[in-house]
Amino acid sequence: MKGKILCLILIITLSIFSLSGCYDAIQIETLAYAVAIGIDEGSENVLNLSLQIALNTSSNSEGNASSQSSDSTVISVECSSIQSGINLINSYISKQINLSHCKVIVISEILAYKGISEYLYTLINNIQLRPDCNLVISKCKARDFLEHSKPTLEQLSARYYETIVATAKHTGFSDNIHLFEFFNDHRDEWIQASTILAGVNTSNTQIKSNGNNFFDADTSYTASQTPIKSENNIEYKGLAVFSEDKLVGELNSIETICHLMVTNRLKDCVLSIPNPLKDNSSITLFVSKRKNTENSVYLVNNSPYIKTNIFLKANILSMDSGEDFSSSEDLLQVEKTLNNYIEENVLSYLYKTSKELNSDIVGFGRHVAKNYLTIQEANNSKWLQNYKNSFFSCIVNCNVESSYALLKT
User: Fold this and answer.
1) C-alpha 10, offset from chain centre
2) In contact, 38 and 146? CB cutoff 8 Å
3) Over the stretch 256-306, which tens digit does the pLDDT of each residue have?
4) What would you report as the CA-atom Rg of the chain, rounded to the nearest whole angstrom?
5) What would the pLDDT profile of 130-171 be if each residue is shown by its tens digit?
6) Contact between residue 223 and residue 236 where contact means Cβ atoms under 8 Å apart
7) Other CB atoms closer than 10 Å to residue 374's CB: what's the count?
8) Which H helix or E strand runs over 5?
9) Which of 6, 53, 189, 348 is deepest in the core (most CB within 10 A)?
């Protein structure tokens, strides 16, 4: 009998503790999740911090794509630091800001030209921020960028930011660069950092093609310049190039494709080249990587001589009526034209990074570092300063096949 009483008392005691809650526990409904952070130069203080905060969409109409006004809101504050701004916003809203679901950090181009190391270290030190969130340099104010980030093919703004990955994967016009990757390159002695370039595309920002020929018009744009009409006017296109912590320039679409080729990050892309068999005509090809690019660096009188060998494959996508590329001679002419076209653009891109921007965003310096016996000797070489003295050679080996339809007939 005493044993039964003791068991009953034990059960009751455990039940009391298991059913009791924690009065200071943080619940999901008490948190405000920021899906994007925008950092601008302040007008009345050091910074203007903007947070795009996800709203509870459970009460929205079923099945309909929700606009930004119904699934997120943007709050901005003038502040002296990022953490101070978050604290000020916390005092304004009824929930606690949480950054664990942040997808993208947007920094305005104006601020990036002045230097971002202070903000970079603050962000990387935040335990809530995931290191795989994307870092974007905006050609407009970061707040304007967040306010225009309205999903059209997605229901949630958080998922909408995944278009960054899709753009890099399917077009080659941008790259999928994360916060930790940018931070590591920024601290490295043998490479400079680059990241995603974006902007708000409007009729005022769009330009006529600045391509030298009609066939490369579509790859001559950077973010916000493409002549396109769409409800969604956010555009990820090109790369922002840094030297140390300062923005020094940008790459357009074709230069970004070349960068991905040289760095082995290209999955595939679409290129148009002049038709070698017909004047005033072009051929569009689907280009993808065949095997890894081979880069090598030699020092000639202390000036870097850099060689890059690129291996690709391509299929013809479009052609004029009456043309037949099934013959090997015609394909060889197309192949030669394509190889020359890519070689010219790669060399132009490399000399731009060297002579104009003086920024080794490829990481050629890592090929040189292994030649030094000591760290002190390597540091004394000052590779990042010497990169402007580089000269280059490029060989492209691209095998061209006819269209898929012709291959099957």
Assistant:
1) 59
2) yes
3) 999 999 999 999 999 999 988 888 888 999 999 999 999 999 999 989 999
4) 26
5) 999 999 999 999 999 999 886 655 555 566 787 777 777 788
6) yes
7) 8
8) helix 2-19
9) 53
| Interatomic CA distance for residues 218 and 280, integer angstroms | 16
Handedness of CA 126, 131, 133, 135 (dihedral sign): positive
Q: Give the separation between CA 214 and CA 372, rounded to whole angstroms.
A: 47
Length of the chain: 409
292 falls within a domain: yes
Residue range 24-48, pLDDT digits in tens: 555 557 899 999 999 999 998 999 9
Tokens of 288: 């993808």
Q: Is residue 178 part of a domain?
A: no
Domain range holding 408?
265-409
DSSP string, 86-141: HHHHHHHSSSEEE-TT--EEEEEHHHHHH--HHHHHHHHT-SSS-TTSEEEEESS-
| CATH of residue 387 | 3.30.300.210
Query: Can you name the residues that pair with 305 across neighbouring β-strands?
Result: 298, 391
CA angle 383, 181, 308 (to 5 degrees): 50
**Contact partners, residue 26, CB within 8 Å, separation at least 6:** 96
Cα 211 off chain centre by: 23
Among the listed residues 309, 308, 306, 293, the one whose alpha carbon sits nearest the alpha carbon of residue 383: 306
Burial status of residue 235 (CB atoms within 10 A of its CB: 0-12, 13-18, 19 or more): buried
DSSP three-state, residue 154: coil
Domain count, the chain: 1
Structure tokens at 47: 């910074």
pTM of the full structure? 0.87
Mean pLDDT, residues 347-356 taken together: 98
350 contacts 310 by C-beta, under 8 angstroms: no
**What string of H, E and C letters represents the secondary structure of 33-45?**
EEEEEEEEECCCC
| Contact between 232 and 161 (Cβ < 8 Å) | no
In a domain, 355, yes or no: yes
Element (H, E) at 350: helix 328-351
Contacts of 302 by beta carbon, 8 Å cutoff, 6+ apart:
386, 389
Predicted confidence (pLDDT) at residue 366 exceeds the cutoff of 70: yes
User: Rounded to the nearest 5 degrees, what angle is found at the Cα of 392, between the Cα atoms of 386 and 393?
Assistant: 160
Reported as type and span, the H/E element at residue 344 is helix 328-351
Question: Does residue 385 form part of some domain?
Answer: yes
Q: Which of 139, 154, 141 is nearest to 68 (CA)?
A: 154
C-alpha 310/C-alpha 128 separation (Å) is 40
Q: What would the two tokens of residue 75 be?
A: 């709050």
